Each structure stands twice: as C-alpha cells, then as structure tokens.
Batch of 4 targets.
Target 1
Amino acid sequence: MKLKIFIVLSLISISILTAQEKVSIIPQPTKLELQKGYFVFNSNTKVWIDPNKELEQLGKYFTDLINQQSGLKLNATWKMTREIPKSLIRIEFKKDFKNEEAYSLQIKPNLIKIQAKGGAGIFYALQTLFQLFPLNEKQIKVQCLKIYDEPRFQWRGAHLDVCRHFFPVEFVKKYIDILAMYKMNRFHWHLTEDQGWRIEIKKYPKLTEIGAWRKDENGNLYGGFYTQEQIKDIIDYAKKKYITIIPEIEMPGHSLAALASYPQFSCTGGPFEVLNHWTITKDVYCAGNDSTFIFLQNILSEVMDLFPSDIIHIGGDEVPKDSWKECPKCQARIKTENLKDEHELQSYFIRRIEKFVNSKGKKIIGWDEILEGGLAPNALVMSWRGIAGGIAAAKQKHFVVMSPGTHCYFDHYQALQNEPKAIGGYTTLEKVYSFEPVPSELNEEEAKYILGAQANVWTEYIETTDHVEYMLLPRLIALSEVVWSDKNSRNLDDFLYRIKKHYEILSTKNINFRIPTPLPDENEILISKGTKVTFNKPIDNSNIFYTIDGTEPTINSIKYTEPLIIDDNILIKAKTFLPNGKSNTLSSVHFTIIDSTMNGINYKYYEGVFDSIPDLTKLNPIKEGKIYKLSLSEIKPTKESYAVSISGYLNIENDDEYKFYLTSDDGSKLFIDGKLITNNDGVHKIKEASNSVYLTKGKIPFEIQYFNKWSSGSLKLEIESSQLPRKNVSADMLFIN
Ligand code: ACM
Ligand code: ZN
C-alpha cells in the first residue's frame, strides 16, 4: 500500500515538472539544459560574492530586485562561513571564459551558481535569471537548469532620436533599462539635428540657447536639451547596465539647429531658423571654411571628454550638395585639395574630422553615405540604406554595423491596418526576427567585419514616450535574439511561444508595447460559408472583446470565448485588452463569403527593379491569373522588386461622383475606363493619392498598375461617394467581365 502511494505521488510530481519545465528566455541561450526541481528563495538564502567592487555593485542590484519582489531582506556578502549554507547563491568571476560577455548559470535546488569573466557576463546571467521569476508572486521559485551563454555579435544596439521629439532624462534611463533586459549593449544617442540640438556644449552656449528650440506652427517654442551633468548621470546609469552610449553629432548635413545658432559656419551665412518640419534642408556646414572645422573639433572635444565610448558617430547621411556647388570657399577647397567633385568634398570633410577624432585616440562611425567619394581610413560604417553599404565596407576591411531600413527601422509601420501614423515602411515582428546581419555576399574573412546590428527609432511621428515604447516593442525583443543567439537556433514558432511571457513581464514593469491583434493584418478575408474563425490570443490573462456593428470594441462589447462560425458577410472589429484594461491595437476585418456571383479580377505579375511604373505592354509577365480581392497578398510576389497590373470591372451602384484613394509603397496608378484617374507613381514610402470621377451605374472597367522597389510593398484602393462612406474596394464589388 505504501509503495503504491509513493508511485502515484512521484507520477504526479513528474507530470507537474514537465508542465512547468518550459522556460521562456529571450534571447535564446547558447546552451540550455533543463533539470528537475526548483530553487526557492527564502530568508535563509545567502548570496555570496567574491570581494570585488564590481561584484558588490552587482550583488546589491541583484538582492534589491529580489527583496523588492519577495519582501525578503537578502544581502550580498563576501563573509563566507565555513559551513556551506543550505540555500546559496554564489556569484563569482572566473578567468577561463573566452568571450568577455559570456556567463554560466547553474540552478540546483540548493544552489544558484553564476560565473563569468567580467561584470557584463554576471549582469547578463542575472537578466536570464530574472526572466525565470514567477510574475506577481511573492515567493520566488526558479526552475533548475544549466546554461552556458555567449553573444553572437559584439554590437547589439538601439538608437533613439531625441531631436525630432525630445524625451526627458527619466525616459532615456527607462529606454536603457529596456535594452539591458534583452542584453543589448549599445545605445546610439542621436543628439543633433536640423530640428534641434540637444547636448549642452560649454564653449558654444547658443547651440542650446537657440538651437534646442523650434517654433511650431502656432508659434509656440518646442524643445529641450540635456546638460552635461545630466549626460554624465545617464552615462553612469548606462555603465551600470553594461551599455556603452554612442553619441551622434551630425555633420555636414542635418545641422540646421547648429547653423541657426552659429550661421557663420554655413556657406551662405544665414540667417536660419531651427527647422520645424520633416524635410532635408540644403543648408549644411561649409566645407571650405577652416573655422567650421575648428568649431566642430571644439564640440567633439567636449563630447569625447564626456562620453567614454571609443567610437563617436559623426552622421554623414543625406547631405545635399547644392550649397557647396554655389559656395566660392567650397569650390576653392575642391581645387586646392584636388578633389573631383562635391562627393569627394564630403569625403574630405569626414576624413578631416576623422583625423581629429583619431588624434584623441577614438574612432568615428558614420551612416553609409560616408562611403561616397572614398571612405575615411579608420571609419566604421552603419549600413542603413539596405545592406549594400555594409557589404562594400566589409569588403574594404572596415567594421560595419547593420541597420537596414528593411528590418531595423522601428519608425516603420508594424502592421498595415489601424496603426498610428508612422513615417512609412512595413516592418513586422516576424520580419525583424528573420533578419540576418551577415550577408551571404561576404566570405568568412569579410564576415568578421560585421560587428552586429542595431534598431533605429527616428521620432518624426513619435511624440510621446509611450509611443516610443510602442514602436520599440516587441520588435526589439526579436532583434535581441538576432544579435545574441546562434543563427541555427533561431525558430520563429518557438520565439512566438517564448515571447508570451515577455508581454506579461513588460506589463508588470509598466512598459508599453504593441499588443498583438486578435485577427490577421488584412482589411478583407474571403471565406466559405460556415467557416470557423479562431482569434489569436498570445497573452495569457488578456481578454478579447469584439463588435459586429462597426463600432470600436470596449470591455463592454462581446467577449470572445470560442471560435465564431461565420455564415454571412460581416465586419468584425476586435481588440485585445490586457488584465489592466489597456488596449492599443485594433483588428478590423471584413469577412466576405465566397459565393457563385463572385468572379474576381485578373492580375499580371512582372519582375524587375523599377523607379516608376514601367510600360507593362513591353514586359512579359512572370505569372498571371485570377484573384478575388484587391490585395498584394493574393498575388504572392516572389521577389522584393516587381510590378503588377490588376484589371477587371468595378460594380457601381449609383450615378454619382466617386472619390478614389490609392495608397501604395512604392508607386501606383489607377485607370478607369482607360483614363488615368489617380497617379501615385514614383519610389516612395506608404503614400496616399486621391481623385474624384463621375461614374454611372453599372460595371466600369478599371486597372491598377503598381510597382515595388526593394523592401515590403503595400497597395490599397478605397472608394467614397455621397452615399458610400469611405471604404476599401471589397471583393463583392469586383468582376472579371
Ligand atoms: C538615416 O536614416 N537618415 C540615417
Ligand atoms: Zn561653403
């Protein structure tokens, strides 16, 4: 009898173990072995560290966090008793790790052992350990396991533009906290721009007296800056989280705020105002004036004194050459320096600055435009206009940070429907996760020049700290795995499973993030009658509420509890609400029943790299066929650059004036009855064009021509009339003949 009970009990305990043995660590550790049992923190738990200042700091950081959650009063001490405590956490440096940032973490029922070569590794081990903690529970119990972990890349970065919109010191620290949670180690701080100068420079006080402030449309001043004291405080804060801050001082372009303060360093002499809208200005630093270089060197000297980073970002991107072409001093410089043109003048500018920075024992990094006209001898390159700049630089044996717009620009849209206004682009969580920083064009030797990758958060359309967090997360979590984990261990499904816990961690820490939507990112979904529609619910304890009357869902709408059977055309609007009642995304999907009256439209798909819509009559389509709704997802493009033609008939219900909205990335044109109605051609980010036309009742022939150059494309056609509120052209309006 006794034996029987024992067997039953052990069976139960085994089944409990398997249920809880999954851990959700991001980024995925190099080696992870789960073991049976738990370590439970209690009042007798001892935290032992070696006698070392850095370990003391880390020990305090660790016990503070434990005590905060558990109410315990643990202390990290190096006074070891002869007797080994029954519950011990041992944190120690160990020389034999090859990788400076590597660590090992071993959790047994009576012992947690953390080892690393230096503080960074210990810090990362603690981040891993924190991710194992239960949420919202006082008792901290962690799964037994054994981890060896090291990063794949040494540059794991995120950038923040504090110029287009300004963010306070406290938020910059929160941003650093978020990076640290995911073992990111570089914070690229974009401090100067046309729209604002954000760093106090003692020698040139007007930079912040004038340059930090712009007048908005109503004449109100907008702006702000960080004092050197505040910057020191932030640098110190970041250091404790093992994050190096890379300051960016833009030159020769993106510098109007500086020129508004000191116009004598421009080609024309000004006067200028700090820019209050998002364009690229032609006014840049004068490259023919030696005093410009003295000015910049004095600024850089203060910057280099402040920031311990051995790499300084000098911008270098998007420099219009207009003012240099007109400026006698710049033209004289081109002659005396034997330069071919203004591109070589830009290269001269960067080389001269590089020489100065190098003389102080530091290096420069610049955006990939610094390749044009010849790369400065020791410069690092940040590849943003795709990966081509990064490839070229690595082949020239220059170090590279990959940050292509396609995968790393977190100012891009995260979905195509119902997102807050963004600058354009379309970069989903999945797309970020798919990023490979080392291009296949590089051989093994060249690949060593790829230092890592970085997310960029430009803030033209991001005004609040909440919105910064929304754009950063969850995409940063995906990038952290790209830059930390083994390439071969990457697995999207497994990542999407693990990230669930992270949504809860972020909520608990009051960090905003884009909440996953219940339905796919589509405006219209074609289904057959009686289809069962299951909503996506990746966050435990969240609730989904929906409406079928077109209104915005609230927590008083219909609660989703089980899959819906769809028998009729229906518009479903649905929102995911976190346990705290927060929601920030909306699904809005027309489900259209496929029936016999629906006969679709024709499409033709062409491949090629175009800058505008090509003459499609001169090209051979790669494929053609019939689709039932007006959507690129139906056509399934197989290349990044392509063109399509979509044609058929639009069923018009009434004689009326109709307005068409054609939205695309890149170019598109709408023809009705053979006439060009809306022209939205050219290489551009998501952009809308609209025109009106009078139509009579009946089936009207139409054609859309569209092309996409690199990156992800998008295409949408909406219609509106006096009797028809603005809506997507839906499948039931389309006919093949
Ligand atoms: C950039 O996005 N202009 C570097
Ligand atoms: Zn000039």
Note: The chain has a mean pLDDT of 94.
Target 2
Amino acid sequence: MKKIAIIVGTRPEVIKLAPVYLELKKSKILKPILINTGQHREMVDQMLRWFGIKEDFNLKLMKINQTLPGLTAKVIEATYKVFEKIKPHLVMVEGDTATVMAASIAAFYLKIPVAHVEAGLRTNDIYNPFPEEMSRRLVSHLASVHFAPTENAVQNLKKENIKSNIFLTGNTVIDALLYTAKNLKIEKQLIASLPNFKKYRVILVTMHRRENFGSSHRAIAKTLIKILNNFPDTAVLLPLHLNPKVRNVIKPILKNHKRVFLIEPPGYVPFIYAMKNSYLIMSDSGGVQEEAPTLGKPVLVLRTNTERPEGIKAGSAKLVGINPEKIFKEASKLLTDKKAYRKMTHVKNPYGDGKAAKRIRKILEKQFMSMTLI
Ligand code: UDP
C-alpha cells in the first residue's frame, strides 16, 4: 500500500480534505494517514466528528496568541518528525494556511512528493490575503501534483511555469457540501439560538481575514447596524470567529441590537443549515463563496480582491470590499430589487460538481500504478 499523509490544521482544510480521505479509504492501493497539526483546535474536532474520521496523529500545536513565525517553525519541525517516522509515499495538503506551507517544506526537506489540493488560486497581491497568497504560491513550487478546482486555476499555474501534473478536478468543498446538505440534522437547542428564518430575512455574516482586522471590521459592523435600521424585516446572524482580534472589535458594536444574533461558531453542519435558510450572505470567507451558489444564495464579498473570480463572473457573488457605502448600497439593492436578487441566486456552481474527491483518488491510483510517483 502507498501511504498518503493527509495534513489538516484548520476548519476549511478538514472540510475540503475529508471527502478525499474517505475516498482514499476505498482504494486498494492507497492508504490515507491523517495528521492534524492542531492549528485550530475546537473547530477541527467538530468537523472530524461529523465526517466520522479519526486522526492518526494530533500534533497539538495550537497556543493562545501564537505568532505566525512561531507556528510555522513548529509545524515544519513537528511534521518533519512524523514524516520521518511513518515514511509516507506522498504528502497531501489543501489550500493556503501556515500548516499547508510548513508541512510542504518539511516534506520537501525529506524529498517526499507533495500533492496540493485546491491549487492555483491567486489574487496576484502578495499581501492580500495575507499570508495566504504567498503560502499557496510557495506550495505550488514545492508540490509535484496539483489538483486545480477550476480552469482559471489551471491557467494561473501555467502562467507560473508549472507545467506538469496539473489536473482539473473541481473543488472538494462541493463534495462535502452535498454530503452534508443530504444528511442535515441539527439540534433543537441550536435552532433556538438562531433568528426565526420565517419572521426575518436573515443576513448571514462571517468575518475573519487578517487584513481586515481592526478598522475594517469596525466599519463593516457599523454598516450592518445601518442596514438593520433601514430594513426592519431583516436580522443579522453572525457566528463569531474564535480569534479575539475579530470578536473584541465587532462584539461591542453589535451586541445590543435586538435583531443581531451573535453566536459561537456553530460548527459546519448548523452553518450549512443557516446558509440554506438565509436570505443573503456577507462574508470574507473563501469556502463560503464556493458553497453559496449550490445553495442558491447571493454573497457580498467583504474583501477588496478575491482569488475566486469564477463566482463573480458567474454572477453568484459581488465584490463589495470594505467600503461602508458600497456594502450598504449593494445590500439595499438585494433587499429591494427582486430581479437583481434572482439574478444572483440562479447560477450554476462554477466551483465543482461534487465528484472532485473521486477524480483525485483515480488520478493518484493511476500515477502510482504507472510509477510516476514513487
Ligand atoms: N464554516 C463553518 N462555520 C462557521 C463559518 C464557516 O463551518 O461558523 C465553514 C464554511 O461552510 C466553509 C468553511 O467553514 O466550508 C470556510 O472556512 P473559513 O471561512 O474559516 O476559511 P476560508 O474558506 O476563508 O479559508
């Protein structure tokens, strides 16, 4: 059996690699080994439980107020040691976190090939998103196999002179979403903490990007209050990210409004439930932009750029940035103009069809059989 060390550290990595792990489990020649760096502790455990997956290693690297260089150094060292011990034939990473970049460096130091899932996303601004844009660029040059979610991502890789082993697979986030939407079960207690979706048009908001910390988050929170005051049939549902740099800024502005529902991160399954029942989504999250078209929800992207232009082009998302006037204007339009709303909600998902993980398994099986990857 060829051992594939699958690395996860944060919530989106588990969501996007769980379908691949489960698919590789079915293989007769590949053996997945799950290594959790523990970059985000609580949010990762919830996800693993939902997908019925048990990690093989937990490196427990999360520390409160950890610095980026500190975390990066620890991930390189800790993953290097595990790789030395288990001797994987391939290391698989997904996306663009510190975990992804550091684990890829460790694999490279041991001359173990790296497979990168969700390869080729680019904003072409190395400081936005920070540090993700640089992480994914570095990983592209460390990796031997690139699973690109869209044609645009394939082209981005080619522009950087990466020529071989690029495979267009779709994004595995859609595999996870379709599985979850089919099995959606959430506790009554949790429903009670959410706004009444029949009574209000709910605006679901998520914010966590490092480059928006501080004044941008403050300005967005104030704009949400303005929207609520102008549209009395709306409510804001905002799962607070665990990072204190986010919650300490937006909580004081929003907590006293009676139509604001600030909740702890609800976990992936209730979050999908909330997305499905919301009227409109405002988010700086990458994964949310990819999921929303499958659920038929418009997204106002709270960022100045995005590495996911496909949704903007298809019409399911709009880049509104962090400018309060623009956010207010676009939200008002979607709350008043039915035609504009419909245009954003009836879009074919450009990110995938739910079969990406299967494609990845088949490609890897073929590569190992033909000894392209030893
Ligand atoms: N998500 C979740 N709970 C939340 C917010 C988001 O489970 O409170 C899910 C969401 O459905 C998506 C993923 O987490 O699949 C996105 O993660 P995040 O926004 O942290 O990271 P990004 O996608 O921006 O890298």
Note: Residues 11-12, 15, 173, 206, 208, 239, 265-266, 268, 271, 285-288, 291 surround uridine-5'-diphosphate (CB under 6 Å).
Target 3
Amino acid sequence: MKPVIVVHGGAWAIPDALAEASVAGVKAAALAGIGVLKRGGRALDAVEDAVRKMEDDSVFDAGHGAVLNTDGEVELDAIIMEGETLAAGAVSSVRNIANPVSLARAVMEKTDHVMLTSQGANLFAESMGIPTLPTDSLVTEKERKEWEHYKNYSAGVEELFNSQWGNDTVGAVALDSFGNVACATSTGGIRNKMVGRVGDSPVIGSGGYADNRSGAVSCTGHGESILKVTLARLILFHMDQGRTASDAAGFSLRYMGERVKGGGGAIVVSPTGDWTATFTTERMAWAAIQEDLLYYGVHQSNMHTRVRLSVFI
Ligand code: ASP
C-alpha cells in the first residue's frame, strides 16, 4: 500500500495576513507525517506527529495559539483514532497542556476509557508525567487582543463563524503501508465559547473517525453543526454506499449547510488511497502527500498547487 497523509489547518474565512503562514504550517505538518510513514511508521504515529507540529505552531487554534473562552482561559479538545481495532482516545476542556493529541493517545492506550474531560483529563496528564504549562504560555498576544476586541460582541457564534473569527482547528488523516488508516483532530474551539463548551472535535464520529473498512476523516467548522449531523461518520457512511471520498465529503457538507446552516470542511482518506480536502467555508488550509507529490491549497474551488516532493526536501 502506498502511504498517504492529508492535513488541515481549519475551515473559515482565513484572512490574507494569516493564509500564507497557515499554508506553510500545513505543508510542514504533512511533510512530518509522510516522514513517519516512509520510515515504516504507522498511520497512528503519522497523524499524531503531524497534529503535534500544528499544535506547536501558534498560527493555529490548537495547543499554542488556542483561542480563549469567555473567562479568558484556554480549554482544549482533541481526538485520535486508529482504524484497525477502532481504538480511540479523546480529551475535552483540558487546560495548560501543549499537545492534547498526545494526551488523547495516552487515554486510548493507558486507560479503559475513550474520553477524559476537564479536571479529570488534567489529573490524568499529571499522572502520566505530562508537563503543565501556565495558560499565558499558550496564548499569543494577537489572540489576547482579538479576545478583548470581541468579548463584548453579542452576535451569535454561528453568524460570526464564516466571517472574521479565527478557528484554525487542526487535523490529519493517514493511510500507512500496512493498509491501516488513522485520524487526529485538535482545537481550542471557538473564541468566546462558554466555559465548559465542548465542540465536535473530540467527539467520536463528529470531529473524527477511522475504520479500516471505510476510511479516516478529520473535520473542522462550526462545531455545534458538525455534532448535529455527526459529520465524520456521515461522510464514511456515504463512502460505504459507494461514493468517492470527494463526493461523500461534498455531499455531507452540503447536507450540513442545508439542514443546520453550518459551514465547515473535512479531510478524508480511504483504505485504497482515495483522498480529499473539501470545504464549504471561504477557505481552509490543507496539504496532502501521495506518491511523492505534495498538494496544497487554501481557497475555495478546486484550485491547488502540486509539487514533486524532491523540490521540498
Ligand atoms: N470545530 C471546532 C469547534 O467547534 C472549530 C473549528 O473547526 O474551527 O470546536
């Protein structure tokens, strides 16, 4: 099986000033992920590595650079899942952690549970020896300013989602040379969310899903909408019915738009290597690597760039 990695850096109306850095961030993450796969690593290792890269990159709303809730605090959500055994781990509303995706993996591998939340997730992180960071070290000056600016703004989150709000959730899906798929998604959620609000990202079947029999998906977009249509599972359902990855993602995203008025995006890979990066928001930064070709884009429409990988390494 020829390995594939696809990553996203969040669906929304990314302003020009951030678009270039977002594209650079997803390209770096895809390169990290394919490196793992080419060294014979598993899809699970590749998606964790790619997502960690983006959590560490403060241009994205995950780990460093996360958005703030109404209290000015960072609460992070993440999921990781592998398609061979359907093993999954997730954390929600966890604080003061740089790489929630790795904590989610520890939940998957070291507990009998699928999700740990808030204080319990933090206590577990401590017991695993995962270092705790002061909130301020995760918050960028830009985010603090945006939060100050918007905290008194009372328009609905849904209305704002496709306009000026940055919600650069990150995610990755991969197919490894053993035929296994995996997904991971990580986010700070939506700016000015209520304390304790959990979006789609850490919820199995909504923010992500992976099954060797169907494929792997990582979603981004308006969390409450994604939850209502269980977007990741919906896309895989349509693939099981015979649609291509691209058709299934487009169909499901349009359904979400019609049914609950939510915008968003998804990256998908099938067990045969059929992949897509599809979105209904104005922009979504994404990158994919298959057979030594790097594809990336950020604009709506089918516009993307394709480069032979040797140019990059
Ligand atoms: N889906 C994320 C959330 O609602 C936000 C995003 O993808 O940008 O938490």
Note: The pocket of aspartic acid is lined by residues 10, 167, 169, 187, 189-190, 199-201, 220-221, 223, 226 (CB under 6 Å).
Target 4
Amino acid sequence: MNPLKRLGRRRASVLSLLAVAALVTPGAASAAPDAVRASTLGAQAAQSGRYFGTAVAAGRLDDGTYTGILDREFNSVTPENEMKWDTIERSRGQFNFGPGDQIANRASQRGQRLRGHTLVWHQQLPDWVKAIRDANTLRSVMNNHITQVMNHYKGRIYAWDVVNEAFADGGSGQMRSSVFRDVLGTGFIEEAFRTARSADPSAKLCYNDYNIENWSDAKTQGVYRMVRDFKSRGVPIDCVGLQSHFGAGGPPSSFQTTLSNFAALGVDVQITELDIAQAPTAAYANTVRACMNVARCTGITVWGIRDSDSWRSGENPLLFDRNGNKKPAYQSALTAMGGSAAVRRADAPATRSAAALPTSFRWSSSGALIAPKSDSTHNIAGIKDPSVVYYNGKYHVFASTANASGYNLVYLSFSDWSQAGSATHHYLDRTAIGTGYRAAPQVFYNAPQRLWYLVYQTGNASYSTNPDISNPNGWSAPRNFYSSMPDIIRQNIGNGYWVDMWVICDSANCYLFSSDDNGHLYRSQTTVGQFPNGFTNTVIAAQDSKYALFEASNVYKVQGSNQYLLLVEAIGSDGRRYFRSWTSSSLAGSWSPLAASEGNPFARSNNVTFPAGAWSRDISHGEMIRAGYDQTLTIPACKLQYLYQGKNPDAGGDYNSLPWRLGLLTQTNSTC
Ligand code: 9MR
C-alpha cells in the first residue's frame, strides 16, 4: 500500500476524487470455502509445518510417472545414493557432484526441501578411505570430505545426516567397528559434527540410524546417551533421524515415546527412511500419527516412491504400487495427517494438468465482508491491505487501519466467512508493535523456527514474531530487515515510495520482494537458515511503467506444480486498481506474463461479477487464500480465492480517509 495516505496527500492524477465518501453497507457473505484439507502428502504435512519427503534416485528422473508423483506429492527430497562418499569422492580429493546436483537443482527449482545423506558412513565408502590406518590422515580426510561437500551445497540443505549408522546392532549399546571408530576412536562423531557446523551453519545436523525406534533397545539407549552427552557439552547436534525400516508389524509400541524422549533432549526428530513390509494401512497410520503427536517431529521421508523403486522391492513396502497408483497405505498416511484423499488415480492425466494455472481468470465477488470498527481511541476510516491464513480451524486476518492521521494494524479471526463481519478487531498499536506508521502486513509461519512472522512497512521493511498467531499480544516489537534502503532502490525510486514488503521461501532461500510506486519490483535474498537476517543482493525483479507495475505484489508457490505466481497491482486507464499476473519456475527467475493486461487481467472489474451488488470497481491490495500457512506461501491450483480491498466507486476526497472494505473473490472458471 502506498504511503501517500500516510502523508495525507491526494492522488489527483489517477484516482477519481469525488468529494463525498458514501458508506458501504456490508453485503451478504459468500459461501464458506471448502475446509482446508490438502489432498497430497506434502501439502497436508505443510499444514502443521512439517514436510513429507521421499528418497529420490537420479537414474529415475527421466521416468514421467515417477517425477509426476514426486512433484505432486512430496515437498522434501533425499538423494538415495548420490550424496554418499563413494559417489562424491571416489578418489581422494576428486569430487563429483554431478548426480547430487541433478537431484538438488531439480528440488530447488520446485521448492522442495533437501535432506543431505550422508557424510560419514562405513558403507558406500571407497576402499581408499577404508585402508587408512593413520589417525591424522583419516581425520583430515574426513574433515575435508565434510567441508567440501557441505560447502558445495551450502545454504541449500535443510538437514544433513552427518553421521549414519555408527552404533552396533544387538545388546552392547556401543558404537560399531568401522574405520572411523577403529582409527579415530569414538570421538570421531563429535569431530564430524563440529566440522559440519562450521562448514554450513544454516543446515540442521542429524545423527541417523536404524533399529533405534524401540525405546528399550540397547542400540536406542546408546544413541540416546550420546545425544544427551552432546547436548550437555554443547557439541552441535540438531536432530536425530530414525530410519524406520519396519517389518509388517509396523513401529514398536514405544515408537512415539522414543520420538518424544529424543525430542525432550532439545533436538528435532525426523522419520528419515520409512518403509514397512507389505505396507499395512494401520502400520503406516501408526507411524505417521506418532510423528504428528510429537511437536518436534518435523517431517517424514519414505525411502522411495513406488514399490518397484524400493531397495526391498520384494516386500512392496511403499505408498505407491508399481504402476504409480496410490495404495491403501497412502490413504491411511494422508488421513493420519488430517488430509483427505483425492478421488483420482495417481497417474490420471487430469491430476497432472490440474496443477497448472489457467491463462485467464473469472471471479465472483462477495459483498464487503469486513468493515472498520472504531472504538473510543480509534476512529478508523478504512480497513486495507489484508493478509490471511487459515490455521487451526480459523481464518486469521491482519490488515492496515487508515484514517486522516495515518496507519496502523488490526487483527481479527473467525471460523467462517459468514462470521467475518462480526469478529472482534484487535488493534495492534496496543501491543509491542506500537503506535506510528505500520502498514501492509503479511503473515506466515516460519516452520524452521516454529514462529509466526508479521512483515510490514514502517518506512523500512519491518517484522514482528509471535509463537501463537491467535494471541494478538504475543507480537514482538518491530525489527528491520535492512539497515537502510538498499542502494538500488534509492537509485530507482524517483518520487515513489518504498512499500509492500513480501517474504517467500523455497527450500534453500528466502526472498523479500518490495515495490517503489515507480514501476519497479525489487527482490532481496537470504538463506532459509539465516532468515530473517542477511537480506542482500537486492535486484530489480521486474519493471514496467509506473502505474502498470505499481505496488501490492504477492508471490506464491502453486501447489503440485513447479510454478510460482506473481501478482502486482496496477492502476488502469479508468483510474481503478486491478491485478496483473506472471509465472516463473523459480523465485529468483524472470517472470512470464500469465494474465497481465487490462483486457485479460488477473482480477479487474471486467472479469469479476458481483451477485450481491457492485460495491467496488477497484480490486486492490490483498492476498490469496493459501493451501497452507508456512513460509512457502503455497496456494492451491484450483478454485482460487482472493481477499481484496475495495471501496464505494463514488467515494473520494482525502486518500487516507477513503472507505476501504474487504471482500472475497472466488474463481469461477476453475477447471479442476
Ligand atoms: O536405498 C539404498 C540402496 O539403493 C543402496 O544400494 C544401499 C547401499 O547400502 O543403500 C540404500 O539406502 C540405505 C541408506 O543410505 C541408509 N540406511 C539404509 C538404507 C537401505 O539400505
């Protein structure tokens, strides 16, 4: 949103300036949207801030059935063999990142997280390493391997399996014999973790093993003692991976206890290589439920996609059959996360084409659903710039409040759009966010930090955090993303204003977009691990004439596709606000027009019907209703909905005092 309002100036050139601001009566609410229940594993896991991943083999990436399922269902990827020592450093000092890069680049382009697997393991280890007998040599070889590999993938890996399978099976609870333990002693694990932390501080560092799922097993206890010792001495460790290669009986009854006991040491836990002989539905449901029941169980990875892709293919242990169809265990895993299964077969063509957005849009608008609510200390003229997430059974809406003297923020929540008009308005100037210029909020849950973020403009790009979105008093005081306006913005902003900051992350990086009311869209970048710090490299992501690329940009990931969607608000030839749209296969990429003209807009009065009465001709600053609520800003590909600001077409006068209200667009030309 544009701070002309803040300054109390008029936009004489483009806005109709009729003097009388007639009040708009809120119209009837449109039907409530479908409950937000995802129909893919990754999207459903994302609803609780988790991921659902799979092992991927580079050799299968030219199989369309395989990649179709991979990209539709999974939002995390573990290279099955391509990042192991015998692939990456087969000869000493000769590094081959080709196969690993193939998987990593593909995942990055699609916004899938990457788990790095694995740096130090006694298997798939070249003979030249196994033959080393000198401790100093082996130490430097191990540390060099860790450093080189982590450096290569720096900032792109969510979690690394730093050490894999170092404990012995059976009743000893001790480490197994391996060249590492035998030559370096049991301290090699600590050494590996310390080296790993300095190589890539943004990656979570995991110890990964099998047969550590049953709490009373000696092996589980041995690993537990090691993690407890590491945490007590400050040795860097962030997570424990429980591989979970189960027999037909599924997880042991103590599985959830094991997950929570590890988590209680102050580490995340992850199910890293799940497969279950014959894939019984109850066994899968029990495994998934155990993770869902433990707050620090951050994600689940199955060890392959179809039964035919599995290292134990004779046991049919996975979620998809050899033809790529969903097995009953798929439904039970999805249901255990709270999702509902899609009706179509996994390989039906309609499912794949459903992921792409159409090239033109038609919408039906509700009446004005949300109007300002003044109280004794707040005399509000307009409610603007909404940000919305559906979380825990409620819509949570943040918006700007405007009046002649300036801008601040408000929060409301409701379970159904029919209740939006009666929700209580919590003025955030009464919280640590404070009084003064705060506007154009954007809300999301940053899953890696398990923290809600509210991003807004204050003259700088600012943010507050809150562990509980439903508690308006939980927001922290504003902090700035930048020490000052980046040079490139200063050089291009002209007479514009720096507005409408927007954050979106893929599995490796977070991007901060902003506008200058002068035809430029800017983009800064940092790593997921460094966020909210480190936004540098500010570039112009898109440019056009001033009013054609004005402000209020939104960027989203389209669920089940490799598309990102960019919306930017423009001012049309009639002086009214509308949205143009573009897509890209990468957040840092260039944007291709989708529906980007006045004749074929994303959303403009000429492609919106108003069954409850045409209460607005502006379709202005707002947000899509997302499929999830995390930092990936994932939207559905179908039946889009957009919460926007509109106003009585006859209203004019002081820009700050215009009677903005919030209404909901629902797409009417969805083909899926
Ligand atoms: O699935 C992997 C298979 O393709 C390899 O041949 C095998 C070689 O040891 O490794 C398999 O993956 C293993 C993983 O890296 C570590 N935990 C056990 C997995 C199954 O053996």
Note: The longest strand covers residues 382-391.
